[in-house]
Amino acid sequence: MVDPLQEIDEWGPEKVVCVSDSRTGMRGVLVIDNTARGTAKGGTRMAPTVTVGEIARLARVMTWKWAAVDLFHGGAKAGIVADPGALDKEAVVRAFARRLADQIPASYVAGLDMGITEHDAAIIQDELSDRGAAVGVPEALGGVPYDQLGVTGHGVAEAALAALERTGRPVSGARIAVQGFGAVGAAAAARLDELGARLVALSTTAGSVHDPGGLDVPAWLAAHREIGDECVAEAPPAQQIPHGSELEVDCDVLIPAARQDVIDEQVAARIKADLIVEGANLPTLPGARALLDERGVQLVPDFIANAGGAIAAGFAMDARHSAFRPEPDRILAEVASRTRRNTLLVLETAASSGVLPHAAALELAKDRVRTAMRLRGRLPAATCA
């Protein structure tokens, strides 16, 4: 396990809080990375494999993500070491909220991530008796329905559209492969299908399918809603491929939208897509990104491409104590506008300066955080030069 305390730098983390509860067996962690630009905000994830190091890495991504989309919140992330499918999930979530009652929402506002649903966000609000404790609650309880809107996947699709248009290529007819058919991957596939793209491969935790002629996206969306990840088992045998090989099919755009660190140098050498749009957080390793660049494969970084959820969460943060709710069309339009603008800015900067897109995106975010830290007196003058 990576110890985040071995990686403290000028940016953070500012605070690492580990909590536990003997009655429920809950173990959790909150990492507040950097609050120079505002209150810490980031999703809460639940999985049996959650580690402090993983949450620290994701908290840093949130610092850059908020700055990249130029919204004034700070980077943070929380995690619960538990099975999100367990029968005692509610008790575990409530215990987590109680143990962090001195941090939520004074220092951190909880949100949705892997394993945590709108219902769970509502439980956090209920346990702490505070509407400001979490965002992402159901619309019936006053929440902004950004999860149902598929805002993160919508933004990923818009990033792909912007990157394709930049090189004069139409999205209509473009062959798309999506790793991970969850909230992000499914929404991205749905949006790109609307725009005329052709989904040729997809995967879930249960397997992968591939059809060069194109998959029926509405049918797959319906099957996933009804059956879940096991829907891939219903595919014809001719469509089923080894799990993980969806990353290597012949396509124009690859969207890794599952977990981090899935594309290493060996996988990067076999990728046939010439555009990768990172739907997941941290899906590519640094060595893989360098190799992809050498091969001429363009890449839209995660905290640029998948910032739709953060943009929508900005609306939700503003609406926590308001009687008014933003219109869904306004949210989607803002996600599309900011994501497309940032995608083009990062790709143009990378091309003109000769650096990788990740480096260009990171420098953009760092400049904005550095300015905020300087204004708050958190950086020595030499560091700000």
From TrEMBL:
SUPFAM superfamilies from the UniProt entry: Aminoacid dehydrogenase-like, N-terminal domain, NAD(P)-binding Rossmann-fold domains
Pfam families reported in the protein's UniProt record: ELFV_dehydrog, ELFV_dehydrog_N
Stored InterPro entries: Aminoacid_DH-like_N_sf, Glu/Leu/Phe/Val/Trp_DH, Glu/Leu/Phe/Val/Trp_DH_C, Glu/Leu/Phe/Val/Trp_DH_dimer, Glu/Leu/Phe/Val_DH_AS, Glu_DH, NAD(P)-bd_dom_sf
SMART domains according to UniProt: ELFV_dehydrog (SM00839)
Keywords per UniProt: Oxidoreductase
Domain Glutamate/phenylalanine/leucine/valine/L-tryptophan dehydrogenase C-terminal: 143-377
Family in the record: Belongs to the Glu/Leu/Phe/Val dehydrogenases family.
PANTHER family registered for this protein in UniProt: GLUTAMATE DEHYDROGENASE, GLUTAMATE DEHYDROGENASE 1, MITOCHONDRIAL
Protein name: Glutamate dehydrogenase
Organism: Saccharopolyspora halophila
High-level lineage: Bacteria, Bacillati, Actinomycetota, Actinomycetes, Pseudonocardiales
